[in-house]
Amino acid sequence: MARSATGPKRRRIEPLTRDEVAALLRQCSPTAPTGIRNRALITVMYRGGLRVEEALDLRCADINPASGTVRVLYGKGDRDRTVGISPGSMALVQRWMDTRAALGHGHGPLFCTLAGGGVSDGYVRTMLRRIGAKAGLEKRVHPHGLRHSFAAQLSEDGVPVATIQLLLGHSHLSTTDTYLKHVMPADAIAVGRNQTEWNPEDL
Description:
Layout: E1 3-4, E2 7-8, H1 18-26, H2 33-48, H3 52-56, E3 63-64, E4 69-72, E5 81-84, H4 87-102, H5 121-134, H6 143-156, H7 161-168, H8 173-180, H9 186-193
Antiparallel strand pairs: 1-2, 3-4, 4-5
Helix pairs in contact: 2-4, 2-6, 7-8
């Protein structure tokens, strides 16, 4: 990690693009139970903006396929919130729920091991690093990066910062602003792309 006179610098968050997250999902088997589970877990963190702890605390009762919602009962600061995910994303979660039921697991965490126990956050971090490498991604792949990717893509899509704050479960807007500092607004990028054409060779 880079260091300065004032101490170590925090690593920059590099949000993943939609294509890069899709590449991660392709590294998870669509037929093996662990692959089906990991595809659903990545999807919930990425498309719902959940912290890894929030995702691992989910129960089946927190998922409502009919309304397309995920309920976070114990977010940071013990705050609850409900987020919506797209039908395609919910389909991946539903497939894991069906697989989980077929394994004979009733109560307990939604994202469980094949034996029914809880999945650790250490496993999730290692799994993401492994499939990120297999996918050939040069960016650092980790759970919080998926959350930042969610926020960045909402910002790029023009979603108001206050709405992003609610979806992320932040107490303060300043925290959300920090998440979005690395995101260049699309209109600012457009200004640069639409400058009067010039060719330095002609100067």
